[in-house]
Write a structure and sequence with these properties.
The complex is a heterodimer of chains A (207) and B (212). Chain A is an alpha+beta fold. A six-stranded antiparallel β-sheet of chain A has the order 2-3-4-11-6-9. A four-stranded antiparallel β-sheet of chain A has the order 5-10-7-8, with no helix packed on it. In chain A, strand 7 and strand 8 form a beta hairpin. In chain A, helix 4 runs antiparallel to helix 5, helix 5 packs antiparallel against helix 6 and helix 6 packs across helix 7. Chain B is α+β, with helices and mostly antiparallel strands and 212 residues long. Chain B has two domains: 106 residues, Jelly Rolls, CATH 2.60.120.10; 84 residues, no CATH class. In chain B, strand 6 and strand 7 form a beta hairpin. In chain B, helix 3 packs antiparallel against helix 4. Chain B is globular and about 50 Å long. The N and C termini of chain B lie far apart (50 Å). Classes of the chains: A alpha+beta (207), B alpha+beta (212). Chains A and B meet through strand 1, strand 6, strand 8, strand 9 and strand 11 of A and strand 1, strand 5, strand 7, strand 8 and strand 10 of B. Strand 1 of chain A pairs antiparallel with strand 8 of chain B, so a sheet runs across the interface.
Amino acid sequence: MKTLRLDEIDGVPVLGTLVWKPIRRPLGITAFGINAYTAANAGDEVVEDHSEKTNGHEEIYVVVSGHAVFTVDGGEVDAPAGTLVYLDDPLERRSAVAREPGTTVLAVGGVPGKHEPTAWEYFFPALPHAREGNWARAEELVREGIAEYGERPVLLYELACFEARQGKSEDALAHLSDAVGGDARCREWAQTDDDFASIRDDPRFPR
Amino acid sequence: MKAVRIDRLAPGRPEGIDWLPLRAELGISAFGVSAYRADAGEPVVPRHFEKSGAGAGVHEELYVVVRGRATFTVEGATVDAPQGTCVFVPPGEQREARAEEPGTTVLAVGAPPGEAYRIAPWEYAARAACAAELRDVDELERVRDEGVATYGEHVTMLYASALISAQRGRHDEALDFLSRAAADEDFGDWIRESAPAEPLLEPVRDDPRFLR
């Protein structure tokens, strides 16, 4: 048995005003995905605008405290504490904004017929450090993710980003090449990614 | 997309605890999710293992206290769990929880590690028990058919079949189902205790073959 309290989990600021509270990874859950998101202020995002096209997850969001408003494919759902919003179609676009400070939303996800963790959980911890320009710490955290989760293309891509920012051109080019080899989307992302400004003119940069 | 509010759902009480069958209500197929609700001093998570062979799904389970306060007991260790506490329990550990405040509500999320999720037998049994309590034989039959389609003649579905057959006037069949259910290693004792007081078995209760 392991326990956590939502208000004692350190929040990780990730995208925009979104603050992620990791649950699945610290508890070692492998059978389904589960994390929480909190908003310090009314108006902050508590679920980022996204679909589950890539992961193929069914998702259920549980408003544990506060009050949120969900937007799902353009339709709004008023969601006070105790509301569950279930999205069976991974293609539905979903987002939510807090209406009260301290709103906390639990997100549970899984693929019908199977489950494995998703790669983003292993690079989200690096994002606040990258935002502050602490590229070495960001690289360290992604390497920890790779050690735990394996050389997934998305993680290799993030690793290459942080290496390139530190002038580690050879490592960055090698990891970017591996990422592109494993997931063609990485080639597309790399073309406009500012992280690769220092290596974009190298003839080995994937076009 | 579907949205529900926990406090507006009508609970069943298959194990003497208010049970909110969220997975079935929403049609979730990737993982299991239910909520339990109880007043202070009452059980809010029934004592159980997630072991193979009984009605459990051998699931990893995460309990989240979404309202009130509970005390969990896991393998003899107690955990004070105010609102916002997450308690993760692997399949082999015995767990239960008691509500400490009125209206305490605990969300339970579960799935088997390393394999595809499928609805656990207990969920069919719980839905069947709710239907039986309401004397809704048509709903009981629907749940039984779903359970049999997934697990075949699991003991819980044998018992449901006994109730249905008794109500449909197929008395020999009801007694046969009941006898087979009562012989089950895991649930036999519970069935022998429950069947004499089960109203849906009234049509066959005076038969000398009842639970023989």
